[in-house]
Design a protein that fits this description.
Layout (H helix, E strand, L loop, with lengths): L16 H10 L20 H13 L9 H15 L8 E4 L2 H12 L5 E6 L4 H7 L4 E6 L1 E3 L2 E3 L2 H9 L3 E7 L11 H13 L3 E5 L20 H5 L1 E5 L13 E4 L3 H15 L6 H13 L1 H25 L4 E2 L7 E5 L7 H11 L5 E2 L10 E5 L4 H11 L8
Parallel strand pairs: 2-3, 2-6, 6-7, 7-8
Antiparallel strand pairs: 1-9, 4-5, 8-9, 10-11, 11-13, 12-13
The chain binds pyridoxal-5'-phosphate.
């Protein structure tokens, strides 16, 4: 490998909430332990971005900034190269985060009391976008089938057809299930939503993180009708571990929707802007980051196989859900018969394993844990060894 994915940059004093959780829970940092929770990576910084930002700082000043043509072109070129979707650079609106974008969309395109549909269990801030703005959650539970999840299109259609349902926040690829929706699934979702006038915000932040054999289909790429009925959110933050730069893109092909989104952004924040280093970091990553990403995906896949094989051998009661995309492995611990809060306590306090508890993704996540695979393999191996502590609790 050209890049080093084994070195850990310790973040205990760097303002990382994910690392702080270890100290807050245990009162100390155990030797050789890193967290596997929040979805950022425990790899060193991508050199192309680090060196590029250094050069940028040497040659520029940190004044106010707007998206440059080079920025828009880098975003558009990435989308086309990696996902085959040709977008117009002017469709892009910058936003300080994908959460920010779907919060804005909920306010811009729905009224208080109106329904916003989620496919649950799902990334928890999506629930906040609804509850904090007085909208109504339209819960479409995904159906568990063995080690994967499916869409119950009868339920989906019924809920979309309710005249109060105005918006779907689609998580594509889906966090935490690890599903990469197929073209057929997306076509059905899109057709039903168009028919019932349900607008779609497609959160595609995990679109570049694909396991071998899987392909992400940008929702807006499927047909013009879907493009006109959607807001597609992307960011370099998961792909290249740049979340701290707070830079994301809302790609809005429909000019009327784009204007409405922009008006809402201005209403909200007065002057919503990505910061100058974020824009440059994103441009650098999308322009020079491909080789790093390819190796990074190999490490994630290696960690996935390692954990899956270990659990099949040592803990056959734990079901690992099939990972198609994202670097977040969704594991069902309910077969161990340990109550979920007690399970979290044992994992953290005794095994020093810091995951995200499944119940934060909704009731259907109860009994699950989510393991962030974007971590050096040696720490994953050490974590698996510590997991053996669980054996004494199995009923
Ligand atoms: C599905 C999904 N959307 C959005 C985010 C966060 O996006 P941002 O940091 O750009 O607000 C995450 C982070 O884990 C995520 O998993």
């Amino acid at each position: 490998m050209k890049y080093d994915f084994e070195q850990v940059i310790r973040r205990e004093n760097a303002g990382s909430g994910k690392w702080n959780e270890i100290k807050n829970t245990l009162g100390f940092f155990p030797e050789g332990v890193i967290p596997f929770s929040v979805a950022d990576m425990e790899f060193g910084m991508i050199p192309e971005v680090r060196e590029g930002l250094k050069k940028f700082l040497d040659e520029n000043v940190l004044g106010y900034s707007v998206m440059t043509d080079a920025y828009r072109e880098a975003v558009a070129a990435w989308e086309e190269r990696r996902h085959g979707w040709r977008i117009q650079p002017e469709w892009i609106r910058d936003t300080p985060g994908v959460i920010n974008a779907f919060f804005t969309a909920v306010k811009a395109f729905t009224k208080p009391g109106e329904g916003v549909m989620l496919m649950t269990p799902v990334y928890y801030p999506m629930y906040f976008a609804i509850s904090r703005h007085g909208r109504t959650l339209v819960d479409h539970p995904l159906v568990r089938r063995g080690d994967t999840y499916e869409i119950d299109f009868e339920d989906f259609t019924r809920k979309a057809a309710d005249p109060n349902t105005k918006l779907l926040i689609l998580c594509s690829p889906h966090n935490p299930s690890g599903r990469v929706w197929t073209r057929e699934e997306l076509e059905r979702i899109g057709q039903i939503c168009v028919e019932h006038q349900v607008l779609i915000v497609s959160d595609e932040i995990h679109c570049d993180l694909l396991m071998p054999g899987f392909k992400h289909i940008p929702f807006g790429s499927i047909c013009d009708e879907f493009a006109r009925n959607s807001i597609i959110c992307t960011a370099p933050s998961k792909t290249f571990n740049l979340a701290g730069l707070q830079t994301a893109n809302a790609i809005i092909p429909n000019e009327e929707l784009r204007q409405c989104f922009f008006t809402e952004q201005q209403k909200d924040d007065g002057n919503p802007k990505c910061n100058i280093l974020g824009l440059e970091g994103c441009r650098l990553a999308y322009t020079y980051g491909e080789a790093w990403l390819e190796e990074c995906l190999q490490v994630i896949d290696r960690n996935r196989r390692l954990i899956t094989d270990f659990l099949a051998r040592e803990f056959p009661q734990i079901q690992v859900m099939k990972l198609e995309g994202t670097y977040l492995l969704w594991m069902d611990f309910s077969g161990l018969g340990i109550e979920c809060h007690e399970l979290a306590r044992i994992l953290k306090e005794e095994a020093y394993l810091f995951f995200d508890e499944g119940y934060i993704f909704g009731a259907a996540g109860e009994g699950f844990e989510r393991w962030n695979l974007a971590a050096p393999t040696q720490y994953v191996e050490a974590g698996l060894e510590r997991m053996k502590i669980l054996k004494k609790y199995i009923k």
